[in-house]
Amino acid sequence: MRVASRDLLPRVLKGEVAAIARLLSRAEAADPECRETLGEIYARAGKSHVIGITGVPGSGKSTMVAVLGRRLREAGHKVGIIAIDPSSPYSGGSIMGDRIRMSELAGDEGVYIRSMATRGALGGMARATLDSVDILDVAGYDYIVIETVGVGQDEVEIASASHTTLVVSAPGLGDEIQAIKAGILEIADVHVVSKSDRPDARGTISDLKQMLALGLSIDASAAWRPPVVATSSLKGEGFEELVAALEKHKAFLEASEAGRARSRKIAEFRMLKTAEDLLRIRFHERSAGLVRGMADRLVSREISPYAAGEQLIEAMGARNP
Amino acid sequence: MRVASRDLLPRVLKGEVAAIARLLSRAEAADPECRETLGEIYARAGKSHVIGITGVPGSGKSTMVAVLGRRLREAGHKVGIIAIDPSSPYSGGSIMGDRIRMSELAGDEGVYIRSMATRGALGGMARATLDSVDILDVAGYDYIVIETVGVGQDEVEIASASHTTLVVSAPGLGDEIQAIKAGILEIADVHVVSKSDRPDARGTISDLKQMLALGLSIDASAAWRPPVVATSSLKGEGFEELVAALEKHKAFLEASEAGRARSRKIAEFRMLKTAEDLLRIRFHERSAGLVRGMADRLVSREISPYAAGEQLIEAMGARNP
């Protein structure tokens, strides 16, 4: 028998893994039955520190996240990891070899790992991720890591919708990868250069620092200057510095107006993404009637995309379907 | 003095490059002044064949697109290329070295190349891209190539919103890249394995064919079986086959119900994306009043994200601001 979401809630609050997993699945699927419960969870949430991690393919993010998770764990924290995985949506299953490296964390009750498929045409990845963060938050996880594998616009936005955003670079990547990297550097609160055991890491670090110095001259008044931390997952080096940088940024947010501004920025992002997702869900629910007919008129070029978009927002605004 | 968009239209229809560039900029910026003109353009558009191209970083997409563009050109077609470039939004300027390789095309009047920045928090990339396709369509470009550099959800969706979608693979890429590739194979109408001059290309081609054969056993009834074409941009090999595959898919769409279904799928995607974009634009316009107050209530956890999203759709549905 299916347990109602509101009956799962007390068990989630106690940190019961099975209840957490079920509610996460419902949140991911945007199940309307769990919406009220997610509202209650949202009202209670807000204790965890959320770390968004992104970086180009090949930067060794997943391994770095696994080592970082272990270090936070050793410091006595409970750690939740939400990995957003682009390989799942179209092919139907995650095949990330990197996930396997996390298995050493998987036996530990203080660590919860969730691999979330990006949701293809149905969208809603941002909404689902932030709902999942709330669930892990009220379940007692002190640090919640959002790791995005892709570096598309959506993934970068989600990594930014966190308290502390880490951008991972690595030595020895090709030109095209470097160009993508340049596109995401600005969202970093902390820069990580992984694979620091490689002989060419020193050059990568000094190149990065130089790039950042150029940026600083534009915004010299910034209250927070993103530090560059070098880590080696292979040798386990640099993680004390990384944890210290995370703690420092956390303290900075708590002590300054920046924390409040950050929370508002996340709230605005979340509000918009949830509205977009509700629009999308209703769009698919109603595609048999209204939407289908409107799409036909668009195909035959009787109306323009803007007119169709306007009508859609207006029609979807009606609360009762 | 600023020329009105409706006065640019006759010049766009004549294929005047300066007028095209100005209207593209306005469409990208979602300038409300050009919306009516875009509606007129939409009503006239629909002649071009749109090719969406995506592939993992390092697959040699941009070089392949440049060679393909030249081949289509040699066959007497006018070619428009819209390159969606993730390096631009945050760093403020495209630094793709690959763009340079396109410069040999740039002197040709029959080729129009537009590099479009992904638009960060403002979103709207899909809407802007499809509006741009219309502009190039009515300006007389026979083939319009949408090339996405990133492989995030948004980019993959945009590459799919085309008549023929090409997915580019290449030999010798790492595990993480391969996993990302697996996530996008299903959207392909034509598979391209680039860098076929490399000795390890043969293995990549047979691996890909094997993967596709596994997929085919599930959907044996499919009317179109995506072919695998090997190309070498370096040696200029395989492009006759590639152009033939494109023409074959074009003919398939024209001769079957699949073409109509495809058009409706693109129209539905476009309608939803335009609605989302209008929602987003109004959201930012009104952030001083309604939205700001609602975000504050969200920060203080007085309302839930779902309730806020509902109110947002309802409020934005009002046509007059």
Can you characterise this structure?
The structure is a homodimer of 321-residue chains. By secondary structure, the first copy, chain A, is of the alpha/beta class. The first copy, chain A, has one domain: P-loop containing nucleotide triphosphate hydrolases (Rossmann fold), CATH 3.40.50. Chain A contains 15 helices and 7 strands. At the A-B interface, helix 3, helix 5, helix 8, helix 9 and helix 10 of A face helix 3, helix 5, helix 8, helix 9 and helix 10 of B.
State the distance separating the first and last CA atoms of chain A: 28 Å
Structural class of chain A: alpha/beta
Could you give the order of the helices and strands of chain A? HHHEHEHHHEHEHEHEHEHHHH
Provide the low-confidence segments of chain A as ranges. Answer: 88-101
Q: Could you tell me which chain pair has the largest interface and how many residues each side has?
A: A-B, 88 and 89 residues
Helix proportion of residues of chain A, in percent? Answer: 55-70%
The strands making up the biggest β-sheet of chain A line up spatially as 3-2-4-1-5-6-7
Shape of chain A: globular
Largest sheet of chain A: 7 strands, parallel
Can you count the helices of chain A?
A: 15
Rg calc of chain A = 21 Å
CATH superfamily of chain A: P-loop containing nucleotide triphosphate hydrolases
Name the CATH architecture of chain A: 3-Layer(aba) Sandwich
- Arithmetic mean pLDDT of chain A: 85
Strand content of chain A: 5-15%
CATH class of chain A: Alpha Beta
